[in-house]
């Protein structure tokens, strides 16, 4: 089953590469992702044993992230169906096959039980997502792709060095299989472990978009086609987060929890600070939400750094954030198609011209900034609770401060987009393609509704299977 | 003895790449460095594992990747670095300083693994730092790719320590990943050249806050 889930998108991608027509490729994508989702769903009955000489295996944490990946991918693939019809007419052969290879690489990330294989899988996600960002082939998107490729590759190269240091630290263990490392953690050489943890944090942290290594993220998220931005910020960042969590697991087992938690706290607060600075007065609405991704990754790091109930909160926030971010970036796709501009000032009267998209924008905005009744609110609250329980009062103070600043920064831009300008400003050029000329396509609405509903439901009701999964995962990270 | 000679040659080639400004020569120097590098597994742990590594490295790093890089710059008219961020003299001095630092740091670390040669760890770190220096101090996209590859060569040297313990599958996966990375980077360099009519990344400044 595990191998099937990796190979299915791989073959799908290969078939998509061979098929001659765009239309056929667009039909293959939702089918492959649906079968993938069904396969993932079947794994919830029981966890399969490790396979392939112990290289592949799934624990509670991996299964949780795999499920999020698969669900979001299904939503995006149905969205793409409607989205691409209006987008450029040129061949999407490379795009479609990269998209499916990307799914395969992410599946491999969640299943890797060997630190070297984990590195290979995370690097593969970078490589297959780069062509996705470059879909439009405009000077801007080429620039974003170059920065993404180079910064992430260098970051990931540092992570490879970190993995080798880990192998040196594990000389007496003999392998870097995750299971063996966790069982024999007391044999690890502590100075080398610390060195490797720093390199792995910097390396995978670059991929996750933690400040100060986040510089590629706003460019890549704003220049990629919106459905791709949704995938990048909804699930790719989580895959990198999983990489860091694996390192954290080893630290916990080796009794170096405090050291790793300090790193998490510093990077988390720094990310929140950077997001708060750049969100204010941001002229590009996709960059705005990209910085919100930096913010949310900071929150995840903070939750892990605080420990205790923060572990549960952080994992819960990861799920909420994935769906909320996926939703908001799909909404920006609708806005972009209607106005053909990514500038906040070019988008006016959204609520009047495109009521459904407007309402979704409000919903998505409330969801990503963590306003009740959305699930994000409760997960952010749990992390605040963790900060107070562990007596990190300064952390709690800055956490609330930055969240408030970011909320106001995003609110300002979103409100400007919703309404028509004040009367003095209406003399400017009319927004291009304004009016109902461009009807709101149902195919571009339903996937957003689906993702929005998940975040909303998670705010009201926690299904018991999810609760168990979150508890099991935080137990892996040393929580109770 | 032979291993030490190879390591010293690899560091020398790194320094020469750092001081060079012709793209074609840099690619050839990188290929030569990779060729010497590919011999090291045979010198460390002769055996079937090492032979496979050597063969794979020669095919990918000595033959395929350099030709890919030459392909990427085939239409580029200005084949030398113009105005590096840090001058050549300064980069060379910095490079020398980094090599010294690498030797100093390595002498302070005690290795739990059996060290094959005293030179191995310091030269690995030196090459990683030289590659990094190349990457941050130059503007040509292709020079940045070469910097990345030199960095990977340094990591490869460090991995020699663990050659016996690493599963072959993982090593091949890493090599394959790096190959695909260079393939995609080559294609993007090509796009940069088409869009900006230059491979100078100094033009890539439209996206900022």
Describe this structure in words.
The complex is a heterodimer of chains A (480) and B (209). Chain A has 480 residues and is an all-alpha fold. Chain A has a domain at 266-462. In chain A, 75% of the residues lie in helices and 0% in strands. Chain A has helices at 2-18, 22-42, 60-86, 93-111, 115-133, 139-169, 178-183, 190-208, 216-223, 226-253, 257-279, 285-306, 309-339, 350-353, 355-369, 375-389, 393-418, 446-460, 464-476. In chain A, helix 5 (115-133) runs antiparallel to helix 10, helix 12 runs antiparallel to helix 17 (393-418) and helix 16 crosses helix 18. The longest helix of chain A has 31 residues, at 139-169. With 209 residues, chain B is mainly alpha-helical. Chain B has one domain (2-201). Helix content of chain B is 73%, strand content 0%. Chain B contains 7 helices and no strands. The longest helix of chain B has 29 residues, at 168-196. The chains are: A mainly alpha (480), B mainly alpha (209). The A-B interface holds A 55, 114, 116-117, 119-120, 123-124, 126-127, 130-131, 134, 137-140, 142-147, 149-150, 153-154, 157, 160-161, 164, 167-169, 171-172, 174-175, 189, 191-192, 218-219, 222-223, 278, 282, 287 and B 109, 111-113, 128, 132, 135, 141, 144, 148, 151-152, 155, 158-159, 161-162, 165-167, 169-170, 173-174, 176-177, 180-181, 184-185, 188, 191-192, 195-196, 201, 204, 206-207, 209.
